[in-house]
Amino acid sequence: MTLPRLSSLIVDDAVARALKEDIGDAGDITTNATIPADATSRAVIAARKPGAIAGIDAALAAFRIVDPAISVTVESSDGARVEKGDIVLVLDGPSRGILSAERVALNFLSHLSGVATATAALVDAVKGTTAKIVCTRKTTPGLRAFEKHAVRCGGGSNHRFGLYDAVMIKDNHIAAAGGIADALAAAKAALGHMVKIEIEIDRLDQLEEALGGGADVVLLDNMSADDLKRAVSVNNGRATLEASGNVTAATVRAIAETGVDVISSGWITHSAPSLDLGLDFI
Q1: Whose C-alpha in 106, 145, 155, 212 is 20 to 30 A from the C-alpha of 33?
Q2: Whole-angstrom Cα distance, residue 87 to residue 251?
């Protein structure tokens, strides 16, 4: 799988801040006190549970920033599916550097691989349907670009990245703007032709008003499978339909089979458990 890579400007900045938080002003006092400065070692990072890998560039940056003399061989790239025991990275070089970078590297790699693994579970569940699994803005502050990349590593797609790249009119916008029609009309009057407009509805009787107002995407919030099917029929291809709410590995197949185009999940970024990966000297 060939995936777009995050900019090194983003990766190096985030990893350097994490290393500064961990190593601090005094350095790794445990490692420096117990390991000779000239000691070298070989270590591996391996999967302790099955999953999907994400965060390789962040892990590489951690070892490179701490000590450029550490050589890293990538055995499982971003997007790879691994089984228990599969090797992800092989490390050779100064023992002190490997130990000092270990936790930051694993924090990024385990968390992001957890996001990729959670995404892959949903993607696998909807295979054979036309629905795409996408993420939301429910991300860890400061890690949005990383977590959205991890979603792609799990086979999912990205929703908007922030408030700046697409319009999403939610229930509170509708209430403050005076209604669906007023909110859509105001958005269309204010925006350029390159910006898509999505609007959220939670009742079927709102769908025609949303479509009539020219929404490009309609978010069907917490609707039953029967209502989702009716919405697909009423829509008849006029807008992209996104289903959201109560999306789990157990429910996502039924949601996809209603014919919606997109299924969004906040859980895959805000609540995905970390993938168990470990570093061991060999």
Answers
A1: 106
A2: 33
Amino acid symbol at 187? A
CA torsion sign for 141, 260, 272, 123 is: negative
Give tens-digit pLDDT for 116-172: 999 999 999 999 999 999 999 999 999 999 999 999 999 999 999 999 999 999 999
Residue 147 annotated among the catalytic residues of the structure: no
- Catalytic site residue 103? yes
Q: What global pTM score does this model have?
A: 0.95
Spatial CA neighbour of 104 closest among 30, 6, 25, 23: 23
Which one of the listed residues 138, 188, 238, 253 is annotated catalytic? 138
Catalytic residue among 5, 42, 127, 170: 170
- Helical (H) or strand (E) element with 145: helix 144-153
Catalytic hit among 103, 144, 229, 230 = 103
CATH 3.90.850.10 assigned to 8-116+273-281:
no
Which of 127, 133, 129, 131 lies closest to 159 in space, CA to CA?
133
Is 81 tagged catalytic? no
Find out whether 279 and 44 touch, Cβ atoms under 8 Å.
yes
Q: Catalytic: which of 22, 209, 221, 257?
A: 221
The verdict on whether 21 is a catalytic residue reads no
Radius of gyration of the chain (CA): 22
pLDDT at 3: 86
Can you give the pLDDT at residue 1?
A: 55
Per-residue model confidence (pLDDT) at position 2: 74
Task: Please say if 138 is a catalytic residue.
Answer: yes
**What is the distance between the alpha carbons of residues 95 and 120, in angstroms, rounded to a whole number?**
35
The CATH class of 124-270 is: alpha beta
Side chain identity, residue 271: S
| Confidence tier at 266 by pLDDT (50, 70, 90) | very high
